[in-house]
Amino acid sequence: MRIERRFTKQDSSPYASIKFRQTTSEIRNPDGSVVFRLEGIDVPASWSQVACDIIAQKYFRKAGVPARLKPVAEKDVPEWLWKQAADEEALAELSEEDRYIGETSSTEVFDRLAGTWAYWGWKGGYFDGEEDARAYFDEMRFMLASQMGAPNSPQWFNTGLHWAYGIDGPAQGHSYVDFKTGKLKKSESSYEHPQPHACFIQSVDDDLVNEGGIMDLWVREARLFKYGSGTGTNFSSLRSEGERLSGGGKSSGLMSFLKIGDRAAGAIKSGGTTRRAAKMVTLDIDHPDIEEYIGWKAVEEQKVASLVAGSKLCNIHLNNVIKACQEIEGDEAFIPAENPALKKAIIGARKAMVPENYIQRVIQFAKQGYTEIEFPTYDTDWDSAAYLTVSGQNSNNSVRVTDDFIEAVLRDGDWNLTRRTDGKVAKTVKARDLWDQIGEAAWQSADPGLQYDTTINDWHTCPEDGRINASNPCSEYMFLDNTACNLASLNLMTFRRADKSFDIEAFEHAVRVWTVTLEISVLMAQFPSEEIAKLSYKFRTLGLGYANIGGLLMARGLSYDSAEGRALCAAITAVMTGVAYRTSAEMASELGAFPGYKKNANHMLRVIRNHRNAAYGLNDGYEALHVLPVPLDAINCPEDGLADAAKKAWDDALELGKTHGYRNAQVSVIAPTGTIGLVMDCDTTGIEPDFAIVKFKKLAGGGYFKIINRTVPEALAHLGYSRAETKDIIDYAVGHGTLENAPGVNHEALRTKGFTDEVLEKLEASLASSFDIKFAFNKFTLGEDFCADVLGLDADDLNDYGFDLLAAIGFTRLEVEAANSYCCGAMTLEGAPHLKDEHLPVFDCANPCGRKGTRLLSVESHIRMMAAAQPFISGAISKTINMANSATVEDCKEAYLLSWKLALKANALYRDGSKLSQPLSALTFDEEDYEDVQEEVKVSPAAASNVVAERIVERLVSERKKLPTRRKGYTQKAVVGGHKVYLRTGEYDDGNLGEVFIDMHKEGAAFRSLMNNFAIAISIGLQYGVPLEEFVEAYTFTRFEPSGIVEGNDAIKMSTSILDYLFRELAISYLGRNDLAHVAVDDLRTDAIGGGEAQAKITDDEVARNPAAINNVINLASTGYVRANNFEVLQGGLSAMSMSLGEGQVSAAAASFGAAGAVAAASVSAGGGSSSAAAGSDRLSRVMEARMKGYEGDSCGECGNFTLVRNGTCMKCDTCGSTSGCS
């Protein structure tokens, strides 16, 4: 192929026209602690600090780069493309600590990416000659450095480490197809063939432990998550709860296995170093377990609410009970009839539904001298212990609906749920009832999303090889099972001429070169399974997309919700995919069509004709489509020549395809572009509109300052406003950043309160980045001595983060509001001077902006923008449909229905406040302002959305809990159906199970290896916190050979399978599940003599006299060996309890509240409440600030900052770039 130069010159460096600067990258936690810091990094001068932080923290290789390199000569490869490897002789001359370093320059990253692509492109025959290869290399480096385009994150993580630095490692089980021979091979190293693909779709068979089955899927998922990729699976092949197993038993059902997979993904998310795991779970609408699946996340959210509310109620009422026991002295204090305070406390606890058992326990504690119970409480943070406790939080969930189902909904017809094993009807329900459940669940918890199965498969290019069943985590990649897609996105704002018109020729050139890049990435890649390697080679799907359409529209003065805006988006999308398919056909003319093309040629050409039909703006003439697409509206396209370019691109794509076929089965998607959107400094991601008018720009030395969205001044100029008018509008939104000459609270007024010039200078320094002046008036800014000595404020008030210092020193609410608007701005353009009402829609965002903002884009506007682009995308679109908090269940159902009518392939809704972790409407106000606030709520709900956060008591992060190097456990030998089975366990010091080993004596090597690896998978799950109970529920009563009589186990005499026996044994030994035993465990005691109830017990005195001896026995004995429950007598009722008496009070570090392990700490503490209150108030301030800035109000799980924004169907952090999806 010929590669022309458009952005670079032949005899000049691609970086010659780009200025570079050195900076320091630093990311801090909200508490000021440093998360990441790297000094002296080299970056393009035009890049923002956030973009610098992203490339330095996320994409620089931090270690293992040899400080001295040498070329590795390779025949038939130009010298400038030779690989590099460590120069061992030169390294030996350096000190050990200097031999291996990390990347510190952005050009190192650009060079290793573009160089690796050029190297594999040369070897694969993609260039006519060396001049074309050099042109390609330079053009790609220029576009990366100029933020014109970016590949998905796995490319940045993995690509080029071997080519540029010789970095390698042992193979990880990957496979690839040799492009020269077409033969499948196992990878022999980690990085020679990189894993550049972000999106995977994997199948799962209705099988437990064999290859392709359920447990194998978790292993394959883990392999993908490790390298920063995401995966999706349709689980509809799994039989439903109660369906017969081959051996005669009954299945535990789909949901039990989804919960195990959810736990596994959550554990990997917490332990990964690149980003959290991304996963999509899909289920067909006719699966018998569909109703439980639809409500899964909504029910789990209710559990979180119960944990939060219940824990706090228990904490309050149990402490009331124990406190009441101290009201009077003597035994009467513990008798409700004799102690009125206790009676009242018990009644209050009962009314709050506190379990009677707990009430009695607390009274028993009081009898023993305890004075307080510290009952652990939970909060609704999305990464809190409450959310970690429930299931369903580690995936996006979707339901596959067909046209037949939606038509049944419309006519209120019946809908059959069919068994997976025999296809017979398991249950008949009303289609509309299921539809209602979907709407209710989406309203409550933002899940499930919908995928429109009929439309998806109508646009399928390769139906001869199977149906499209699933998608990647963010729903943009939809193709055959066991395939992968590598993504890249173009920054639309960089394709503008000096006069701000769209540079069609430059865009087409970039699309062509990036399509080649993505195709080369297929050739060089390795894949996590043999099947994915084979099918990815066979179909070669690509995922080119774009970002910043929202910014482009606003800069041109176009509303996101306008016919012109939608037409411009559609035309750009049509050009992109048309040129990509044209390029694919061009590559096919040189290298051949993708191997699966011939079989599917007629289908693919039909799909191309339908795309072309839409580009011509036709309303008819489509082939084999059930729902017609929204055609290109060329009349309303505001860019001259763009609609004509779209037609030509599709004409060429069709004609070349007829002659040569296509190199790729798919070429485009619109991804969320979370992290890569930040590294390209995009104002908006994917197809999304903007989320805020005023943003906070990060400074190189730390801190932030407020700026107007950079597209706003352009838009105002385009709309005809003068410079002076524009300045007034921007000042209104951003504020003046000073209190000097402000109304109400100003320098003159503050001086009368005792403020000195020095204090005012400190105050002014903090106002530039404040969104509310109240947050600048605190002891940290003004100085604690000044606040106490001059202002006369109390120290306790100053420590309260909710304390209103301005009100305390005499300023009224109206004075503060006036000063706030002047200094910090309205953070919205609503009400701005000079701005005409007809221009307000141009500046509408996904959410209301600032304190006063009420405007936001309608649900329909989001859907119609997607519908404008969808006919010109091979795959689909990742997008969040933002809905106001006031949206109803009916609104959710209407949004899903409109999406189907407009031929979208998938959609997901997010109603503001549909997550417990996003508090919305709790107000903070003085009682005297109650009526004013009530009126404000009626007039402007968005302006009243100050939030109150719960008290933070504890934050737990799920990490892998390592076993001690020397550990206890037991070995159990048994014979199941004539086959010897050895089970060996490993325990933590507290007796909990942490690992299992399974060996089958004299079985074949394959079966023994399978069982060994199965045991490893279970062990990893246990160490990451998957409850043993979940495994027991999933595997007991499974039925397959060998099975039958069990010999050698004193409690189990029969099993339906090896797994049934193993998990019965573990359940009996570690969970006390004697219901799974065939012989009563008590009968196995050596001293068992009949049915007498009284049993010898060690007295409390004996325990007190011999604590060390008893503790030694407890610590050294295996819990499983002694069958946990049999050992309880040794603990004498004092499990985990320590007492210290002093001054008549008793404190306990930990007191066991029952054998199940529910533990509450009982203690006496002074002043402990204030710190909790302060923590809660501090979080309130951060949430309020985040929401006012346009963020979601949640904290980032990686860096802790409250800078999360919606990103497609996922979330991204504007501080550190972490995302919950593919980018």
Describe the 3D structure.
The chain has 1223 residues and is α+β, with helices and mostly antiparallel strands. Among the domains are: 477 residues, Anaerobic Ribonucleotide-triphosphate Reductase Large Chain; 62 residues; 112 residues, no CATH class; 36 residues, no CATH class. Helices cover 39% and strands 14% of the residues. The strands form eleven sheets. Strands 7, 10, 11, 12, 13, 16, 19, 20, 23 and 24 form a ten-stranded mixed sheet that branches. Strands 27-26-25-28-29 form a five-stranded antiparallel sheet. It has a three-stranded antiparallel sheet with strand order 30-31-32, with no helix packed on it. The chain is globular and about 90 Å long.
Spans of at least 5 consecutive residues whose pLDDT stays below 50 are 270-275, 919-957, 1085-1098, 1125-1175
Q: How far apart are the first and last residues' alpha carbons, in Å? A: 29 Å
- Based on CA atoms alone, the radius of gyration comes out at 33 Å
Roughly what is the average pLDDT, rounded to an integer? 85
| Largest pleated sheet | 10 strands, mixed
CATH class of one domain: Alpha Beta
**How many runs of DSSP E, i.e. beta strands?**
34
CATH topology group of one domain: Anaerobic Ribonucleotide-triphosphate Reductase Large Chain
- The helix-and-strand class reads alpha+beta
Tell me what the CATH architecture of one domain is.
Answer: Alpha-Beta Barrel
Would you spell out the secondary-structure blueprint of this structure?
Elements (H helix, E strand, L loop, with lengths): L19 E9 L5 E11 L4 H11 L5 E2 L2 E4 L10 E4 L1 H5 L3 H4 E2 L4 H18 L6 H16 L3 E3 L1 H6 L2 H5 L9 E3 L6 E3 L12 E3 L12 H13 L3 E5 L19 H18 L6 E7 L5 H5 L1 H29 L15 H12 L4 H12 L17 H5 L6 E6 L1 H8 L3 E5 L6 E6 H15 L3 E4 H6 L11 E2 L6 E2 L3 E9 L12 H21 L5 H10 L2 E6 L1 H7 L7 H29 L5 H19 L26 H19 L13 H6 L14 E5 L5 E5 L2 H8 L4 H12 L12 H6 L4 H11 L11 H4 L1 H7 L4 H5 L5 H4 L4 H12 L34 H11 L10 E4 L5 H13 L4 E6 L18 H10 L31 E6 L2 E9 L5 E8 L4 H19 L4 H8 L8 E4 L6 E2 L2 H14 L28 H6 L1 H10 L22 E4 L2 E8 L6 E4 L5 H21 L15 E4 L2 E4 L10
Parallel strand pairs: 10-11, 11-12, 12-13, 13-16, 19-20, 23-24
Antiparallel strand pairs: 1-2, 3-6, 4-5, 7-19, 8-9, 10-19, 14-15, 16-24, 17-18, 21-22, 25-26, 25-28, 26-27, 28-29, 30-31, 31-32, 33-34
